[in-house]
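Notes from hallway chat w/ T.B., transcribed later so I don't forget. T.B. wanted the structure written out for a chain they're using in a teaching module, and asked if we could keep both sequence and structure tokens in one place. Agreed to drop them here.
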Amino acid sequence: MMGLFSGTTVQAQSDPTGKKSITNTYAITNATVHSSPGTEGRKASILIKNGVILGVGDNLSIPAEAKVIAGDSLHIYAGFIDAASRAGITKPEDPERPSDFVYSNPPDEIAGITPWRSAVDQFDIESSQVSDLRKAGFTMAHVLPDGGMIPGKGALIVLGDKESTNILKTNTALAANLNGARGMYPGTTVGVMAKFRDVYQNTKLTKERMALFASNNGVTRPEINPTYTAMSEVVDRAIPVFFEVENDLEVRRALSLQKELGFQLVLFGLEEYETVIDVLKGSGVGVLLKLEIPDDKAIKNQKEDVSDAVKAQYQRVKEAYDKTIAQAGKLAAAGVPFAFSTIGAKPNDAMKALQAMIESGLTEKDALAALTTNAATIIGASRIAGTVENGKLANLVLSTGPIFDSESQIKHVIVDGKVFDYEIKAKKKNGNGENASVEVAGNWEYKSETPAGSSGGTITIQKNGNGYEGTITYDDPAGSGKATSSLSDIAISGSTLSFVFEVNAGGMSISVDVSGDVSGNTMDGSMNISQFGSFPISATRNPN
């Protein structure tokens, strides 16, 4: 990938509000520092000033104004990088169709061809999705716009606070996919591929005509087209195309376009890469793996007294699950450098997904590389991020132990030199030292907080054989009092209760994932609402 920051000086983010503190100097002392993937942690201190790492070593001179963080029991890693993200991104409304609209030849904007748009215009740093990413250890995100077949240009963002601009680089990549427009051309995959070729080749032709016009008298001036102007960086190979793919056939189609036209390519979105590993090996194409594992609740809740046909179905589900979580290790073993994307994933499940991948063959070195150095290389930010060393941005993760240990928790995340603190909860154990399970049956009164305000209702859970069933009431979005939904995928892991329910909002079904820590008759956790992020939820069980 292109070096977006080569030859530049790293500086802390600007403060347009004037609300940042004058002194932004920190010293983390006597911590175990893991400077890069594969290197053994060593005891050292880190000096940070104005968002930049000024020193990493044993005998640092700590200035008097530095705020000291005792790191004796902490492990420090480079901040994680989300190489393709839509955290904080809101999809723009579709434009109105003109009265003279022609279905076979629609305007680019209506057909979903908007390469001039920027993810910055769709991004909100105060989104709960951003705070969820940060809490999971992510300090930088390459955000991509949402939209049609060519929704626009990406941007590199540090996940700092709202007092900063947080923008590191705009126009970092062109986002693209093979999804056709509805009710107009290009409406099919083949049509999208043809249209992409057309836009690319017309951009090249326009550039040639502009060069001819600039160098010769008497040449007719070519028309300036915003689509072709915005595509010029792709044609010049100044930025890559981040191509979202849904299956192995789309991978092959994207690779075919790249080979034919010659642009730089990064693939993301595919959940199963195993069938195309041989095609990707040695291709030089960037690969992003969705930081998620398949839902394993169906496997955990399998019943014993079932027919052979159902048992065979269980086996197919288990094989598909094992295959998916093993693919990261297979990519690494094949020498295909990859990073992670959180598009369509839940950040608060990131560590669970990584631990499952490691148990299935991915080495800890390769897992950390995918979160840091590989991601920095793919998005062109190795100059400023990916490792813990002098001169790089002060983007760090501080955990209570080695980052991939099941008992470790993230205590601090430093972004752009600002420290974010997170609560550390003692994990409950049973008498054998193993994670304890809890009883969750009963009637629970819950409260939740969302941007729409406070709401609440009742959660009812009851035993059903080896599993559970239940219902939840919630404020009807239509304003008709309370509505009720069945709970699905009810599961208990240690002291954590999780379940899913559907909310009917104006004829649209919205999935809500709830996860909370149960202690006696109380539960505290979060609910993740599709496309909206995570919000706090608490509940109290009625002892009667």
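Follow-up for T.B.: The longest helix spans residues 189-215. Might be a good example for the class.
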